[in-house]
């Protein structure tokens, strides 16, 4: 089998997709909003499905969240993982219901939970894909989260490319230096096993290498007033001065609220319940 | 916080300073007495482990506030005792750029990174300070970029800008040349000199490369065993070639040449000065004295003609590139044709991002070309897995710790032969350990070794793979000169085991002293493929591939020597005999 350079489904692609997701490089509707409004929007969407058992409402909310995923340009990796999860979940539900002598009611009531969780997941994807680390940490800071949390979020994102790079390097080292299996085995299970083993082994060198690099970071933080800013609030005021809620922000919130209300109204008109 | 009051005394005064890291067996600093005047541009030189970095960390209070070991003596920075002020207050006066500056960047975007200090301290003019620092270093156009998207050179300038935004009176830069290509290091030095001249900022650099010291610094502080040996004006300091060499800092090549010509008296520091110095002594290159090709280079190895030695690896019409985070394709190699032959020592040169590492990775099979073919010992890299190709190719990463996968040097070295069930594994590993002189340290974790030992350990990992083709990425970066020479000697000694060695490097001394063939990459192509002397003679090309030739080669070119000399001895030998005799 000839190998070719692949632009999708490769380690390189996963790395880029993670960065695109973390740094909101694709833009989208929510990416243009004030980060605090995005958080409110998220709370609104994530809370909406928990007040009903009406499947019509839940389906409408699910559709609304799916529309948000599209408008926020969530990348293929995240959507792919979600769809994969949803499909396996459905498969599992049907199997479980059949195995435990359940009927359609069992499937529907378990499906209800899937719909709710799916809505929340999609709302999370839409919101967090639209927030780059800066925006997220500013929003948290302005909502009076402890400074360490805000910074932790932004620094965590900063570490992401480093971790991924270190991980890839170590994996490549193992690919070259550890012995490949003599035969692939049934469905390539030996290859899969080797991959899984390497991933586990890679953890120790990756963490050590990353830890070594963070020592400089900790010293640099100290010399650049990070600890000082924890106790003095002048920095916080400057950092948050740029946050503004504009008409577009309010409009998006209002439209979302209206659509959720409409979903409930429509559901009341045409109710469907898991309990037949 | 208010701006620190102006201070008229020296920038740094150190008295009887003794410091020991917590848990260490020996003092890192033992009795340092030192004065650095305001507005000075000081180079701190000395071998690995001489206490250079520890000393510089006392200036901004990291020692003893952050590293609380055993501390006695006083350090005054602009008149303030560092034990009585905290690190935050000191950071208004002292900025520090680390050797691994990439890890110093903590914020996502450049603008944010530079304003991080002023914003944290709540300075009302933080915006002006940020703009000013970006403008001073000429990187205002990078303002909205993510820091991880930048090249090494740009990251260094951003780290420096973040420090300058605090408007410090003193800036410490730890080994700018270690991780940058020579032209980008040059850029950093030019900016530092500019800041020093225009703003009167005192600059302290830790530096192994005497040539940069000669061109940019005003005074030199030589450190050995945790204490200064002397602190002298640059010309006087660099004239003490013997002392510098004894501490692992070979003098600039023009100084060594001058010493070969005249054992006493004043010496030139730069190529320009050397031309004048030599003409004042009526020293001219002897016409026809030099052989048509340099004597060190064995002729058969660099004959790139078809009836040469067998081909070990070949790239034909190779094109490769990377996807960017925005989805575009950045071409790195556009059209590369290259044959690597048996017995060759190939240096792969070119600026950061010219595609050196990409080319090496294509040869390992970790990557396959987007078009064209890569072949190693006749096998198309597309047709086998990298693990199988590893029987023929070994690739050593730039940072040694990236090669340490196991918890001891021995385990790392035996990973490959043991995994492949080589019957003679034990004997092979013992032999390799012996050759790299690490038998005594074989059970230590590679990460705990010194820089030079780490390089030797990675060479050992490569050797145990018994490859036909050995690929090394920057094997000499961030090593002091003595350690570097050791690694070069080791590469020499390995020649009998490996059919072909390729080194990607910025280190032009390594190229001049070791390589038999230079392949220069630029604009996605091979721009030049020639023996070192011919390569260094092409000045227009050197600029295009962002290479700064060794001083002695540049001097030879300036004197009209064709081909230019590659070593000091060769150059001295080719100067007119009248001077030789006068010198003797």
UniProtKB/TrEMBL annotation, chain A:
It is found in: Membrane. The keyword Transmembrane helix applies. The chain crosses the membrane at residues 39-70, 77-100, 186-204, 247-266. One of its GO terms (cellular component) is plasma membrane. InterPro entries: ABC/ECF_trnsptr_transmembrane (IPR003339). It is a multi-pass membrane protein. Keywords: Membrane, Transmembrane, Transmembrane helix. The keyword Membrane applies. Pfam families: CbiQ. CDD domains: EcfT (cd16914). It comes from the Bacteria. This is Energy-coupling factor transporter transmembrane protein EcfT. It comes from Streptomyces chumphonensis.
Automatic annotation (TrEMBL), chain B:
Residues 285-309 are annotated as: Disordered. One of its GO terms (cellular component) is ATP-binding cassette (ABC) transporter complex. InterPro entries: AAA+_ATPase, ABC_transporter-like_ATP-bd, ABC_transporter-like_CS, ABC_transpr_CbiO/EcfA_su, ECF_ABC_transporter_ATP-bd, P-loop_NTPase. Residues 12-250, 315-548 form the ABC transporter domain. Residues 292-309 have a biased composition (Pro residues). GO terms for molecular function: ATP binding; ATP hydrolysis activity; ATPase-coupled transmembrane transporter activity. Keywords: ATP-binding, Nucleotide-binding, Transport. SMART domains: AAA. Belongs to the ABC transporter superfamily. This is Energy-coupling factor ABC transporter ATP-binding protein. It comes from Streptomyces chumphonensis. The lineage of its organism: Bacteria, Bacillati, Actinomycetota, Actinomycetes, Kitasatosporales.
């Amino acid at each position: 089998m000839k190998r070719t350079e692949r632009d999708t489904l490769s380690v390189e692609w996963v790395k880029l997709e993670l960065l695109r997701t973390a740094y909101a490089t694709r833009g989208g509707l929510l990416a243009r909003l004030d980060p605090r409004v995005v958080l409110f929007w998220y709370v609104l969407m994530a809370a909406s499905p928990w007040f009903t058992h009406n499947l019509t409402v839940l389906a409408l909310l699910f559709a609304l969240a799916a529309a948000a995923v599209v408008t926020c340009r969530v990348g293929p990796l995240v959507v792919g993982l979600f769809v994969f999860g949803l499909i396996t979940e459905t498969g599992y539900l049907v199997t479980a219901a059949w195995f435990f002598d359940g009927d359609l009611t069992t499937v529907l009531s378990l499906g209800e939970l899937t719909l709710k969780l799916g809505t929340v997941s999609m709302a999370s994807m839409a919101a967090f894909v639209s927030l780059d680390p800066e925006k997220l940490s500013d929003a948290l800071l302005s909502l009076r989260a402890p400074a360490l949390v805000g910074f932790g979020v932004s620094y965590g994102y900063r570490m992401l490319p480093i971790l991924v790079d270190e991980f890839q390097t170590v994996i490549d080292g193992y690919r070259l230096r550890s012995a490949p299996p003599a035969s692939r085995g049934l469905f390539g299970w030996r290859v899969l096993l080797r991959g899984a083993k390497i991933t586990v082994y890679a953890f120790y060198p990756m963490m050590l290498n990353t830890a070594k690099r963070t020592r400089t970071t900790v010293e640099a933080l100290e010399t650049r007033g990070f600890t000082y800013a924890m106790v003095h609030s002048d920095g916080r005021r400057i950092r948050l001065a740029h946050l503004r809620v504009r008409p577009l922000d309010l409009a998006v919130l209002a439209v979302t609220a209206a659509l959720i209300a409409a979903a409930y109204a429509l559901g009341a008109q045409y109710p469907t319940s898991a309990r037949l | 916080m208010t701006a620190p009051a102006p201070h008229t005394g020296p920038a740094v005064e150190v008295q009887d300073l003794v410091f020991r890291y917590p848990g260490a067996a020996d003092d890192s600093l033992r009795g340092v007495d030192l004065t650095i005047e305001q507005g000075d541009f000081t180079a701190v030189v000395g071998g690995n482990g001489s206490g250079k970095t520890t000393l510089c960390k006392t200036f901004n209070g990291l020692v003893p506030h952050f590293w609380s070991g055993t501390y006695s003596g006083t350090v005054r920075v602009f008149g303030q005792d560092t034990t009585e002020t905290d690190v935050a207050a000191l950071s208004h006066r002292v900025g520090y750029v680390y050797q691994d500056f990439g890890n110093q960047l903590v914020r996502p975007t450049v603008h944010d990174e530079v304003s991080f200090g002023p914003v944290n301290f709540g300075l009302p003019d933080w915006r002006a300070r940020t703009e000013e620092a970006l403008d001073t270093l000429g990187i205002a156009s990078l303002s909205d970029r993510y820091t991880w998207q930048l090249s090494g050179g740009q990251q260094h300038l951003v780290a420096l800008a973040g420090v300058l935004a605090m408007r410090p009176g003193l800036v410490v830069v730890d080994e700018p040349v270690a991780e940058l290509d020579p032209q980008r290091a040059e850029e950093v030095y030019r900016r530092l000199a500019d800041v020093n001249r225009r703003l009167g900022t005192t600059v302290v650099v830790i530096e192994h490369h005497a040539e940069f010291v000669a061109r940019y610094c005003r005074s030199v502080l030589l450190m050995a065993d945790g204490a200064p040996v002397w602190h002298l004006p640059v010309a006087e300091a660099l004239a003490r070639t013997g002392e510098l060499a004894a501490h692992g800092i070979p003098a600039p090549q023009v100084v060594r040449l001058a010493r070969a010509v005249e054992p006493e008296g004043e010496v030139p520091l730069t190529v320009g000065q050397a031309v004048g110095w030599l003409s004042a002594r009526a020293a001219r290159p002897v016409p026809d004295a030099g052989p048509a090709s340099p004597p060190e280079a064995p002729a058969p190895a660099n004959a790139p003609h078809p009836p040469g030695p067998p081909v070990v690896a070949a790239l034909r019409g190779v094109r490769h590139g990377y996807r960017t985070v925005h989805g575009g394709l950045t071409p790195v190699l556009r059209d590369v044709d290259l044959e690597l032959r048996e017995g060759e020592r190939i240096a792969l040169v070119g600026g950061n991002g010219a595609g050196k590492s990409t080319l090496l990775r294509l040869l390992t099979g970790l990557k396959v070309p987007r078009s064209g073919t890569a072949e190693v010992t006749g096998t198309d890299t597309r047709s086998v897995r990298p693990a199988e190709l590893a029987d023929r190719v070994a690739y050593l990463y730039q940072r040694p710790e990236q090669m340490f996968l196991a918890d001891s040097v021995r385990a790392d070295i035996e990973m490959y032969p043991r995994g492949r069930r080589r019957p003679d594994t034990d004997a092979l590993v013992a032999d390799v350990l012996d050759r790299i002189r690490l038998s005594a340290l074989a059970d230590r974790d590679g990460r705990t070794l010194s820089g030079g030992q780490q390089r030797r350990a990675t060479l050992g990992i490569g050797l145990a793979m018994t490859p036909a083709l050995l690929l090394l990425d920057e094997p000499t970066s961030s090593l002091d000169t003595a350690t570097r020479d050791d690694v070069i000697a080791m590469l020499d000694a390995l020649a009998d085991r490996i059919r072909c060695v390729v080194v990607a490097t910025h280190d032009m001394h390594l190229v001049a002293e070791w390589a038999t063939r230079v392949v220069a990459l630029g604009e996605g192509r091979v721009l030049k493929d020639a023996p070192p002397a011919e390569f260094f003679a092409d000045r227009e090309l050197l600029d295009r591939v962002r290479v700064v030739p060794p001083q002695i080669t540049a001097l030879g070119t300036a004197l009209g020597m064709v081909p230019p000399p590659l070593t000091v001895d060769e150059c001295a030998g080719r100067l007119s005999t009248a001077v030789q005799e006068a010198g003797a």
